[in-house]
Amino acid sequence: MNQSLLExxxxxxxxxxxxxxxxxxxxxxxxxxxxxxxxLTLFVFVRQTGEIIGILxxxxxxxxxxxxxxxxxxxxxxxxxxxxxGQQLDLERINQLMELADFFVAHNAAFDRGFLQKIIxxxxxxxxxxxxxxxxxxxxxYRTRKLQHLLDGHGLAGQNHRADGDVAASIQLLSQxxxxxxxxxxxxxxxxxxxxxxxxxxxxxxxxxPPGKRPNFWRNxx
Length: 222
Prior knowledge:
This protein has helices at about 5-10, 70-75, 80-85, 90-100, 110-115, 145-155, 165-175, 185-190, 200-210, 215-220; strands spanning about 15-25, 35-45, 50-60, 105, 130. It is α/β, with parallel strands linked by helices. The radius of gyration is 17 Å and the shape is globular.
């Protein structure tokens, strides 16, 4: 815990705390797959400007899903069955960090939240925001909303498809400014909160569509 930032956030009118989540999983559907790695990082920002001034605290942990990790998923994040064997997420620590956050963020929030709500109870009072859909990247000239493409477009270090690396990269992205000179975080917070996670029926329907016809929430997961 960053004690200096902890003291600052006592001034709630000036500073806020966001909680950025990322999960790595055995596959794409939260209805049939499980989390193998989770990262939650708390960042402190200036409410008036959206400037991120530092990291308050962070947790990253591996998790044994009790099922094989799909080969296609392993190719993405590099996490193997051997790496997660016997590992468990520290849910008590995750909940402690969540209490400090004013809201939660993820890149393609419907995907991460779909998995997270299977293991964590989220308070209704804390909204979700999505860096994938909460900012109009297409209008800014980006051909996709994929995180790596957005990082490349801003000259930022690439993601490594591990939970902590993707969170760190996403927070870097939110720390950049748009063409109006405003921080992306401020732009994100001025938009409507992210859509709920998707239902089992929606997930099943998306999975059975041909790749070119699957909805955006499925195609832009990574």
